[in-house]
Write a structure and sequence with these properties.
Elements (H helix, E strand, L loop, with lengths): L1 E7 L3 H15 L4 E4 L4 H7 L5 H9 L2 E6 L15 H11 L3 E7 L12 H4 L3 E7 L11 E3 L11 E3 L6 H20 L5 E6 L5 H14 L6 E6 H10 L6 E4 L1 H14 L7 E5 L5 E5 L16 H13 L4 H16 L2 E2 L9 E2 L2 H15 L1
Parallel strand pairs: 1-2, 1-3, 3-12, 5-10, 8-9, 8-10, 13-14
Antiparallel strand pairs: 4-5, 4-11, 6-7, 11-12
The chain binds 3-isopropylmalic acid and magnesium ion (MG).
Magnesium ion (MG) binds next to helix 9.
Length: 364
């Protein structure tokens, strides 16, 4: 295993260090190469995604990514802001398929802001298209009106665009995931989320997803408008199995889904290319206010390492061992501050990582 380690900003370095411990505990021969990314890269190299970092990411089999974002750099031109690092990696590496599971761990049921009966047992998967849509469509920019009414620009625009191959390949990822989940006891249903009632791009999305569905007769397909999907996600989240949607709607709905579990600090993600090379990162951000305090929850990053073993390295057994170790640690009552509740034991970032490593060794 040749893995690029990109810790990034804020709590990124602290949580990634714990996931690295876990990878080493599983396989001492793992080859890791660390590089700066985000604001941390801008500070030393003048760019959030330097050539050298991009090279290391391209040469690796998989990437473990912490988080980017640092308020110190908010005033920079857009092309130099920390967020450009993750957008650049997705584009340059063709990481079009973003898998964001939202799972409620029974031990954390009271962390959700929803009633326990609404969320208990929640286990859904959001499949977000990651390299198209209004995030990347051209043209985009600002321009002055022909009559020059304002001194500077007086109009700004972005382009929402999807091509048939882009929709087909993400639809296949969703249908394949639903097929596997059905075999594991889930409903085997894909809900495609769009805005076909208003947007041409998403009427096209709906048409193409429906066509691809013909190849997957064992999986059910339904369609929801995004506003309704946002509502159903808080009304009856357990009615969903796999959701598939575009880049922009997926960004929004995946944050909403993550919060259903009450513990965004627990949720991993995978961003995959056509050959299952992947970038793995926690679903949460860089949390600058927690940085350096040793209190951040490393479990989302540790679970992202488990996803890496499953999807890029095809080592389902190792992935399940990590997931089992995380559950064992939760069952013992260990909690970082974000998931703390009455009667549990508070631990910091390092102690949580150590406990997962100890649970792994104990289970061997
Ligand atoms: C995410 C983040 C990114 C996105 C930002 C940091 C560019 O919100 O991964 O969901 O909008 O995709
Ligand atoms: Mg987001």
């Amino acid at each position: 295993m040749n893995i690029a380690i990109l810790p990034g900003d804020g709590i990124g370095p602290e949580i990634v260090a714990e996931a690295v411990k876990v990878l080493y505990a599983l396989d001492e021969s793992v080859a890791l190469e660390t590089a700066e990314v985000g604001g941390a890269a801008y500070a030393v190299r003048g760019h959030p995604l330097p050539e050298s970092t991009l090279r290391i990411a391209k040469d690796a089999d998989a990437i473990l990514f912490g988080a980017v974002g640092d308020r110190r750099f908010d005033a920079l031109p857009r092309a130099l802001r920390p967020e450009q690092a993750i957008l650049g990696l997705r584009r340059e590496l063709g990481l079009f398929a973003n898998l964001r599971p939202a799972i409620l761990y029974p031990e954390l049921a009271d962390a959700s802001s929803l009633k326990p009966e609404v969320v208990a047992g929640l286990d859904i998967l959001i499949v977000r298209e990651l390299t198209g849509d209004i995030y990347f469509g051209q043209p985009r920019g600002r321009r002055a009106s022909p009559d020059g009414a304002f001194a500077g620009a007086d109009e700004a625009f972005d382009t929402m665009r999807y091509t048939r191959p882009e929709i087909e390949r993400i639809a296949r990822v969703a249908f394949e995931a639903a097929t596997k989940r059905k075999a594991a006891g889930h409903a085997g249903r894909v809900t495609s989320v769009d805005k076909a009632n208003v947007l041409e791009t998403f009427q096209f999305w709906r048409d193409v997803v429906t066509e691809v569905h013909a190849d997957y007769p064992d999986v059910a397909l339904d369609h929801l408008y995004v506003d309704n999907a946002a509502m159903q996600l808080v009304r009856a989240p357990k009615d969903f199995d796999v959701l598939v949607t575009g880049n922009m709607f997926g960004d929004i709905l995946s944050d909403e889904a993550a919060m259903l579990t009450g513990s965004i600090g627990m949720l991993p993600s995978a961003s995959l290319d056509a050959a299952s090379k992947g970038l793995y990162e926690p679903s949460h951000g860089s949390a600058p206010d927690l940085a350096g305090k040793g209190v951040a929850n490393p479990l989302a990053t540790i679970l992202s390492a488990a996803m890496m073993l499953r999807y890029t390295f095809g080592n389902v057994g190792a992935a399940e061992r990590i997931e089992g170790a995380v559950r064992a640690v939760l069952a013992r009552g260990l909690r970082t501050a974000d998931i703390a509740s009455k009667g549990t034991t508070s631990v910091g970032t390092k102690a949580m990582g150590d406990a997962v490593v100890a649970a792994l060794r104990a289970a061997r």
